Amino acid sequence: MRKATTHADVIELRHLRYFVAAAEHGSFRKAGAALGLSQSAVSRCIADLEDQIGASLFHRHTWGISQTFAGQRLLATARKTIRIVGEGAHDAAVVGRGEKGCVRIGIYSSIASGFLTELLEGYSASHRKVGIELIGGSADEHVAAIRRLRLDVAFLAGTRDWADCERVPLWYERVFVALPDHHPLTAHEALTWCNLTGKTFIVSKAAPGEEVHAHLVRELTGLGGRPDIQVQAVGLDNLVPLVALGRGLTLVCEAMTVTRFPSVTYRPILGEVLPFSAIWSARNDNPAFRRLLSLAKAMAATPPPSEVGRSDAPSQRPGQLQ
Fold it and tell me: Quick one: 286 exposed, middle or buried, by C-beta within 10 A (0-12, 13-18, 19+)?
């Protein structure tokens, strides 16, 4: 019996691999051939392992080796350990390459059409095993989650720089007014703010209702007194149907206009273009997110072929505005 030592915590994975190979082949020489090593290298490694655990693992014979009782007990554990470590290393490598994992995205704009839709479609096509979690909320909520690394990225309107966050501009969307089909302003192909003075507007209590409210006040105050803005405790999907019922007008981003609601017409506001940026934390090392960000930057730098030569493109990249 070999003398026990106090160094069992320094057993290496190669010790177990060599031990399993020797047990399966019944010979240090054959195990060495299978591993691409010499017989002496395998024999020394097994001896080191026996010294570490303080027990003999093999009986040495002239014709080969056979396992001791201790060796039989260790074999199943060694095989399981090698398998778990191998699977863990593979999973880590896959996640590290951005092939698996999850990306948590805070959204402000609709994903019905436009840049964000194209981004998610392109990313999903090449990263099918990566989960995508879309989270609604206000800009402040998204940024707070990004700082705590509970959100990977948020696509927010505006050009504001947020403390402790990175930002890159990606695309622009025109601003539209949602009108009832019977409203007199539907006769115009496009509207100005002067056309909208004195009109009743409705906004959602949920995001981005607060930002829409502030924008309406900023643009309409001074043109016709303080605007009439009513806050509704519903989301955008129920706010637009209220427009059809004649409860008021509302503003939507261009991506939203592909979603058709009965008895609702959209008209653009001349000169109103809303920029969108990606916001994230420099401390975020999620490989799946980094792949998404790289794709977003590449898409922003080059307009898709469908937009080249078009003046009615639904959303435009930074630097592509006319």
Answer: buried
Please check whether the domain covering 101-307 is classified as CATH 3.40.190.290: yes
Q: If you search the block for the tokens 């090593």, which residue do you land on?
A: 37
Tell me the C-alpha to C-alpha distance, in Å, between residue 214 and each of 162, 203, 227, 268, 294: 19, 10, 11, 19, 33
Which of 234, 205, 201 is CA-nearest to residue 219? 201
* Level-2 CATH architecture, domain 8-96: Orthogonal Bundle (1.10)
CB 254 within 8 A of CB 307: no
Locate 175 and state its tokens: 């601003």
What are the DSSP calls for 111-168, one per residue? SSSSHHHHHHHHHHHH-TTEEEEEEE--HHHHHHHHHTTS-SEEEEES----TT-EEE
Q: What is the pTM of this model?
A: 0.63
Closest Cα partner for 203 from 193, 214, 192? 214
Six token digits for residue 30: 């054959």
Copy the structure tokens of residue 169: 């501009």
C-alpha 155/C-alpha 224 separation (Å) is: 33
CB 161 within 8 A of CB 239: no
DSSP 249: B
Q: How far is CA 90 from the centre of its chain?
A: 21
By three-state DSSP, how is residue 60 classified? strand
Integer Rg of the chain from CA? 32
Tokens of 283: 């401390």
List the domain boundaries for the chain.
8-96, 101-307
In 3-state terms, what secondary structure has residue 275? strand
Mean pLDDT per 10-residue interval, the chain, length 322 residues: 51 87 90 90 90 88 88 88 76 57 83 84 90 88 94 91 94 93 95 93 83 87 82 85 93 88 94 92 92 93 46 48 35
